[in-house]
Amino acid sequence: MKNKIKTHSGAKKRFKLTKTGKVKYSQVNRRHRLTQKDTKRKRINRNGSYVDKSNEAQIKALLPYK
Question: Cα–Cα distance between 18 and 23 in angstroms, integer?
């Protein structure tokens, strides 16, 4: 019997897997000092985004049981 792989605790807080297998994450730059940031920039950052295909395999390796 093989050993279980631990889930990367930083990755599990930042990424979610969709049913189609894409990796979804929340945009950065939305935590503090929002008064000096442009409204357009904040509006665009409200929506989630998907990880690029080139990085998808690396992140899925950090989340083995998702």
Answer: 6
